[in-house]
Structure formats: structure tokens, C-alpha cells
Amino acid sequence: MKQNLPALGGQNITLIKWLTFMMFMMFAMTTDSVGVIIPQVIKEFHLSMTAAGAFHYVTMSAIAVAGITLGFLADKFGRKKAIILGLVLFALNSYLFAVGNSFAFFLGLLVISGTAIGIFKTGALALIGDISNSTTEHTSTMNAVEGFFGVGAIIGPFIVAYLLRAGVSWKWLYVIAATICVLLILLALAVKYPQTKRATDEPVDFKRTLGMMGDVYALSFSFGIFLYVAVECAIYVWMPTLLTGYHGPAIKVATYALSIFFILRAGGRFLGAWLLAHYNWAAVLALSGLVILACFAGSVALGINAAVFLLPFSGLFMSVIYPTINSKGISCFPKSLHGAVAGLILFFTCSAAALGPLAMGAVSDYFGQPKYGFVLATGFAGLLFLGAALNWIFNPAGALLGKLEQSEYAANADAS
Q1: What is the spatial distance between Cα 79 and Cα 129, in angstroms, rounded to a whole number?
Q2: Residues 121-161: pLDDT tens digits?
Q3: Which of 48, 102, 149, 297 has the highest Cβ tally under 10 A?
Q4: Burial class of residue 279, CB neighbours in 10 A (0-12, 13-18, 19+)
Q5: Assessment of whether the complete model's pTM goes beyond 0.90
Q6: 77: which DSSP letter?
Q7: What CATH number corresponds to the domain at position 39?
Q8: Counting Cβ atoms within 10 Å, is residue 164 exposed (0-12), middle (13-18) or buried (19+)?
Q9: Domain membership of residue 410 as a residue range
Q10: Neighbouring residues of 89: CB distance < 8 A, sequence distance ≥ 6
Q11: What domain count does the chain have?
Q12: C-alpha distance from residue 335 to each of 140, 217, 322 (Å)
């Protein structure tokens, strides 16, 4: 299947990459600011923590549903149309935050926001295959994309904190994100995107996406994503609660533990983009999984005095796992299916983001202390490492990735 990639020229491809980077940074500004927004929502609407937590669960659930039900749009109508549709919906919806005054209204907007993210994120993830010349470049680019997502996760909470100090409502974060989104839409409209030809005459619809549930590669990589996200969410959802009981000499580290984690995660993804271009991806995943397991197990066994250092440090090694599993899972399929499989993996991603913290909270409530939730998270980390180690040893997707390297990317590489 020959792509139109070479005809676009290096300048256009570079611009498309930067547009994709900025899209991920922009929506991370909103989704990863929920931790600093929820306390304000609790005070503003007099809510319980469980009710206010809907700001996180509703968004993740909407992204999950949109990923699996609408991911095929990127294959059916093209990456550009799917991306612009999602961005337009996101921008219009985000501006409405400025006029809202009720919790129910905001939850409704978050449903629409999550749906929009699900549409343009699957389009953007599918696009990465179209602008890559090899599966290795695909994985490297995916790490760079998620690196910019990590930057957005740092910028968003900073903006909210600045707004609150200035006496301005947190709602204006969404207005800022919407304005950035409008600029991205204008640029996206002006850029020529590569065209992906369909490999078969099979209908491109929701039914085909569901059919992927029976594919062993799609399910294996999706389950790996589920485990990783459950581990990561343990940090940014529950680590601040765990460390509230810390009053030792490293109190400043505890105070900024989440920021340290996000900085290490973002920086690690840019480092990961280089590592994965030079070293075996399966080995990198296995080593990273081992260090993450050690960080969680050490935090549980040695207590809060160790956790204050080990949990934030795990971000450096978490950084490479999500984009790499995502990339290899998508690369196991022809480019004409990248939108559908990206949507399926996104469904597992956001399902874990909703269910993982919920399960940890329930376990912590049952036993009366947040550390027991981290015992569960350590179990997730153990399964994640086991899967990564087995993947490194047996390399089950190696032959398929090699075959698709030739059929899907060779023409682009020869022409570039």
C-alpha cells in the first residue's frame, strides 16, 4: 500500500508533527489539571470527594467510549477531517465553561470534551503511522508526542494555580485551551495531510472496531496499556493523599512530589524517543517495568519515608512505557486500520484511568489507610513487569512487525 507521504515534502511533515505535538500538549492542560481543580469544585459546590471526583471519571469515561465507538472515523473519513472535527468540538465546548455556573452543567461539558478528545486523539495517533518511515520511527515519534503531553500536564496545573492566586476562576483554563485550539484548527486547515488508502473493501465502521476485540495482538497490547495506566494513575490521583501523612526532613520533596513526577515523566519521554531509536524496545520496556516495580514495592515495604522519594522517581521510567506499547500495538496493523486500533487502545487507556483509581480508593477505604491502595498498585506493577519480561524473551509480535515494516513503511523510507 503506497502512501502519498513523500509528495508532501519534509517541511509539511515537520509542520504536521509540530501540530500533533501541540494538540497533545493543549488537551493535557485540561485533563491533567483535574487534581488542582477538584479542591476548588468541592469548595464551590459543597461536594464530597467522591462526587467531585466525577471531574476525572466522567472525562475519562467519555474518552473511552468515544475511542472505541468513533475511532473508525479517522479511517473512514481521513485523519485530517477527524482531527479537525474533534478540535472544533473541543474548542466550542471549552468556551462554554466561561458561562457555566452549575456542577451538572460542567459535567455535561466534560462529557462533550471527552468525546472530542477521543475523536481527535485517535485521528492524531493514526496520523503518526502515515508520517513515519518505519516502526522504529513510529515509536520514537510517539514518545515525543507523549513528551509534549507531559509538558501540558505541567503547564495546566501551573496556569490554574496562577489564576487562583490572581483571584480568577479555574474555568478560564478551558478558555485558554480553547483559544490555543482555534489556532491549531486554522493551521490544520492550511496543511496538506498524507492520504491513507484502504487495503480492503471491508466497511469502515464501529462493527469492524469491535471485531478487533478478538485479535490477540490488539488485546495483548491493550491489556498492557490497561496495567500501565492503572499504575500511573496511582501516582497522580492518590500519591498526594498518601504523602499527606509525611512530616519528615524531606517535606519539600513531599510538597512538590507530583510536580517532580510530571517533570521526570515529561523529560523521560523525550529521552525515551532517543533510547528507542537506538536500543531494543522490548528490552527498554522490561528494564523500565522492573524499576517501576522496585519503586512501588519499596514504597510499600519501607513505608512513607521511602515512598516520598521512590514514587516520584518512578516517573522517569514510566515515561517510556505508555507511548511504546501504544506505538507497537498500533504498528501491528495496516495503516488503514490505525484509527480503529488506536480507538480500541484508547478505550482501555481511559477505562484504566477510571477503574484503577476507583479500585485503589475502595481498597484504601476498606482497610482504612491509603497505603493499602498502593499494595494493589504494586500488584498491577508486578503484572506489567511480567508481561514486559515475557515480551522481551519471546518477542511474539516480532515477525508481524517485521512484515508490516516492509509492506507499510518500505515505500516511504525508499522515497525519502
Answers
A1: 11
A2: 999 999 999 888 888 889 989 989 989 999 998 899 889 98
A3: 149
A4: exposed
A5: no
A6: T
A7: 1.20.1250.20
A8: middle
A9: 5-415
A10: 112, 115, 116, 119
A11: 1
A12: 17, 15, 20
